[in-house]
Amino acid sequence: MSEFKDWYNSVPFFTRYWLTFTIVLSIIGRFGLISYYYLILDIYPFISQFQIWRPITALFYYPIGPATGFHFLINCYFLYNYSQRLEMGMFAGKPADYFYMLLFNWLCCVIIGLLVNLPILMDPMVLSVLYVWCQLNKDVIVSFWFGTRFKAMYLPWVLLAFNLVISGGGVMELLGILIGHLSFFLLFKYPQEFGGPALLTPPAFLKQIFPDTRYVGGFGSAPQTRVPTRPGGTVFGGHNWGRGQTLGGN
């Protein structure tokens, strides 16, 4: 029990509670302690009956059953693996920044869910976080089923194709990719490569609630800011689903 407690406490804050709430709420819905209908995103009771908890519970709840149990476990693995890597890597020491990115992705999922009648938000939310990590670690080699290995930048698209072939789905994955791309663009591409303002900078009150720490992680790197050139000059300056590893030395 102490080993589990040590492992649980070692998981970074936001990843730990995201995973915990997902498992707990999904189990509650599975055994009928609360009717699943009150946990999903439904625009009519959300607006007309003021059931404002639905966008939150729709993020954490996933219907567990014989046909969905394996997919739920895979989602939990991706959540734990890639959210943890982001939180301890690019966003290490910046909890408010990571929370603000999660909040933005979640709001995008909620808006799209209300528009297209999407009752469960776990799939696109997890894929959006995975996509951001993959973009920050494009050249890391990841392993997939059957020993296939490829660069991390292709992983979201492989997952999209895999679900399209196996289950005839792919819509959730596509939405997650689009949300993740928008988040990555606003966080890194737009301010660093196009010189635009940092639109996803967390407000001051979030920095007060989740102050920066001195710890700096090293897994993943943001796109490099473009350096202008002078005229005539140069630029100065088990199965391992998606488990990354680098090839070659530094």
TrEMBL record:
Location of the protein in the cell: Endoplasmic reticulum membrane
**GO CC: one term?**
endoplasmic reticulum membrane
Pfam families in the cross-refs: DER1
* Coarse class of the protein's main subcellular location: endoplasmic reticulum
How does the protein associate with the membrane?
Answer: Multi-pass membrane protein
- Transmembrane regions: 17-39, 59-80, 100-118, 125-146, 158-188
- Provide the family line: Belongs to the derlin family.
State the function annotated in the UniProt record.
May be involved in the degradation of misfolded endoplasmic reticulum (ER) luminal proteins.
Protein's name according to its UniProt entry: Derlin
Originating species:
Euphydryas editha (Edith's checkerspot)
